[in-house]
DNA sequence: TCATTCGCGTGAAACGATTCATGAGTCAAT
DNA sequence: ATTGACTCATGAATCGTTTCACGCGAATGA
């Protein structure tokens, strides 16, 4: 593998000069620069990041560790993060913990060994030991889609209580009195908060609430939930799901069972992923600004790792969700 | 940042011994080992991969560079690749070129600088200059979801010609004579092959084929295609889409326009992503074994980079696609 | 003419691990 | 008592960069 010293020899200069050509071209005379550059070309020299990083002590890579890449919501976060990273000349590597704490731990220790610049983290469990050991590595991290106290870390999130309330209010206002909430695992703060939002609205109304908890936040769990809903009596006339994957699963289960949506059952999802609007009965959903979430988190992380003088203050950014009403809750468009 | 020499000092041994404790524990006596391990614990020592890699000359990371992470098909490939990588103690970093050649180039040069173990590549354009310069870096790569001549590189793909034929035959056999093929950009080999498959079947039948090309392989393009289809006369009674995202877009556009699926228009997608089966009118689709694709590609790459004696022969693995028939083409289930 | 500045280039010292030849110590066998 | 075999630990060399103090020569100013 050709290294900097091969280039130096070929160009008849010292290795220090080659390094300067690559990193501070203005410090080198035009003629030498040209000679070195053509040597680089001819030899096909590619700088070795590991050596560079060893010297520098920090890498040019930031990591994004998400709960589930199968959920387009997180893919959008990744895209946002990549956008700002690129502006800073950094790269993002995306890791998928698949909701599993052991994989989260494994990735975190890998990232610590890599000495990544920082980590954008959407953790399975905040209180977990996973983070506890990672903290000692001194690698900065920012929470994404999870609010934490500012003294612990910066975080960028969306107000899930409001989001839940938004959905619930919409259902109450459209006249539903028998409402179900299909929630994901309650170890997830997002799920707990959305439920809190739902309850705050429904408790103050005359509607009745049943809560179903699923083990995963995916389409298959949604289908399961659908069959449970079908067995309930009285059967709810509206269901709010903790995310769009669940909602799509419920929708499919209902359509398969001949239940008309929204006539017999209104459905509200959460995240407003692209597939929500693209469903044959387009889903009403609570939109989260996923891309902006990713951008903002990356910006915070970059600010924290800027080689400035003073440590930057931790920040807590909270975005507001927005209800997007579509056919799955509006009778007017049906049929 | 605590390094190996801090540990050595604390434990009262040489750095070589610490290294042995970490990498070849059996070569160290039990008592020293215990002493070193507790020093590691107390100091919170985390090995620095960049130094390790500098010495070793190769990294423990393999990369997967895909066309579009927004497409669940590629997420499944990533999962497959990660499964086998994990078995080998490797890590995968997933990069999303978003169908853009410039990002592909940028990622490839980053990966070359990182001296990754190898790259699983789903390239925008095989003939591209992107690859040409990457080749010089000597980093092994395996094509995923794209067949190439075995003398160039190993590849793992699915037979797209057969896949296209499968879909077309299904439509012909269910009696359609006016068929549309909504294809993605023809620079993609996948798209060209699927079209070839479609033509091979339809040319031999009495059905008529119209081909619409879209600029992207996403849901929005599918919606566009739907409106174009609506303007055609005679209007096709069946449409095959080059992937499920397009198909979902078409489905949505049609349902919004009041066209009944499958009664007035049958739709076939490609990839069989989870959302295809979860659509309110579940999509008939050509299934590709995405996870196995990822696994197989990673296995090939690992075989090529095994530090064995002889270079391993290049391999070309081709999987067979499979038609999954659902409601979007079968009148029997409708209403 | 001499001193000062400036522009360019050099060479060596890091960075933090791995690896390997070497040596120190112990034990058993001759 | 000497040898050989074996177990552990050592310390130096090495990987490919970056960085920095320094030196050389030319240009500038007095």
UniProtKB/TrEMBL annotation, chains A, B:
Pfam families: LacI, Peripla_BP_3. This is LacI family transcriptional regulator. The keyword DNA-binding applies. PANTHER family: HTH-TYPE TRANSCRIPTIONAL REGULATOR GALS, LACI-RELATED TRANSCRIPTIONAL REPRESSOR. The keyword Membrane does not apply. Keywords: DNA-binding, Transcription, Transcription regulation. CDD domains: HTH_LacI, PBP1_LacI-like. Residues 2-56 form the HTH lacI-type domain.
């Amino acid at each position: 593998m050709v290294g900097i010293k091969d280039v130096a020899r070929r160009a008849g200069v010292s290795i220090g000069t080659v390094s300067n050509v690559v990193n501070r071209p203005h410090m080198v005379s035009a003629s030498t620069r040209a000679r070195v550059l053509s040597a680089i070309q001819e030899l096909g020299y590619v700088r070795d990041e590991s050596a560079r990083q060893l010297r520098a002590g920090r890498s040019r890579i930031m990591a994004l560790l998400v709960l589930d890449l199968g959920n387009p919501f997180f893919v959008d976060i990744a895209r946002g993060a990549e956008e700002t990273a690129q502006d800073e000349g950094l790269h993002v590597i995306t890791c998928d913990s698949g909701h599993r704490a052991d994989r989260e731990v494994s990735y975190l220790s890998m990232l610590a060994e890599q000495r990544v610049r920082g980590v954008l983290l959407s953790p399975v469990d905040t209180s977990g030991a996973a983070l506890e050991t990672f903290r000692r590595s001194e690698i900065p991290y920012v929470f994404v889609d999870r609010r934490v106290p500012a003294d612990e870390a910066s975080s960028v999130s969306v107000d899930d209580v409001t989001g839940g309330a938004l959905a619930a209010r919409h259902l109450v206002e459209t006249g539903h009195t028998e409402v179900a909430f299909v929630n994901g695992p309650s170890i997830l703060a997002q799920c707990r908060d959305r439920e809190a939002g739902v309850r705050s609205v429904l408790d103050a109304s005359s509607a009745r609430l049943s809560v179903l908890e699923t083990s995963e936040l995916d389409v298959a769990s949604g289908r399961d939930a659908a069959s449970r809903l079908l067995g309930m009596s009285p059967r709810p006339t509206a269901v709010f799901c903790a995310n769009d994957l669940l909602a799509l699963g419920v929708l499919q289960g209902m359509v398969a069972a001949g239940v008309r949506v929204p006539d017999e059952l209104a459905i509200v999802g959460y995240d407003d992923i692209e597939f929500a609007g693209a469903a044959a009965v387009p889903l009403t959903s609570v939109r989260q600004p996923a891309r902006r979430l990713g951008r903002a988190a990356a910006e915070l992380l970059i600010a924290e790792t800027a080689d400035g003088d003073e440590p930057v203050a931790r920040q807590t950014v909270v975005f507001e969700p927005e209800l997007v009403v579509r056919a799955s809750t509006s009778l007017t468009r049906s049929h």
